[in-house]
Amino acid sequence: MRRNQRAAHFRANRIPKFPGYFERILRRNNDGADFMFGKRVSYVDLSLFQMIEGSRYAFSRTMERLESQHPRLIMVHDRVMARPNIAAYLSSPRRLPFNQLGIFRHYPELEEE
Questions:
Q1: Which pTM value belongs to this model?
Q2: What does the DSSP assignment read for 26-68?
Q3: Which residue of 2, 46, 64, 80 is surrounded by the most CB atoms within 10 Å?
Q4: What is the pLDDT of residues 70-113, one digit of tens each?
Q5: Domain of residue 77, residue span
Q6: What is the C-alpha end-to-end distance of the chain, expressed in Å?
Q7: How many distinct structural domains can be found in the chain?
C-alpha cells in the first residue's frame, strides 16, 4: 500500500473509530445527560475533551468533516470547555499550545486533500 493510500485508509477508518465509539456510548447510555456518566463531569469527559482538542490540531480538516457525525461527543467537549475553572485555564498562559513535540502532532500528509 502506498503512502497516500495508507493516509486515506487512516482518515477513513482509524480517525473516525474512536469518536464513533464514544458517540455510540453517549447515545445508548445518556439520554439528556450532560456528561458521559450523567450530570457530573468525570475523568472520561476530561479525556474526551483533550482527545477532541488534540484531534482538531492534528487532523483539522478531517475533524471538521467528522464532527457533525458526533453531536453528543462535541456537546460533552463544549460543556467541559465551558466549566469555569477549565475555561480560566484554557485562556491562561499556563495552557501550552499544541506543537510538534507533544502527543498530538500535525501531519499534513494525513490530512484530506
A1: 0.85
A2: HHHH-TT-SBTTBSS--HHHHHHHHHHHHHHHHTHHHHHHHGG
A3: 80
A4: 999 999 999 999 999 999 999 999 998 888 888 888 877 777 66
A5: 3-110
A6: 18
A7: 1
CA angle 57, 88, 27 (to 5 degrees): 60
Burial of 30 (0-12, 13-18, 19+ CB in 10 A): middle
The CATH number of the domain where 86 resides is what? 1.20.1050.10
The per-residue pLDDT for 110 is 73
CA-based Rg of the chain, rounded to a whole angstrom? 15
Are the CB atoms for 48 and 76 separated by under 8 Å? yes
Cα dihedral 51, 74, 64, 8, rounded to 10, equals: 50
The dihedral formed by the CA atoms of 74, 75, 77 and 79, expressed in degrees to the nearest 10: 160
Contacts of 69 (CB under 8 A, 6+ apart): 16, 19, 20, 23
What pLDDT, on the 0 to 100 scale, is given for residue 1?
A: 66
Closest CA to 23 of 77, 68, 80, 73: 73
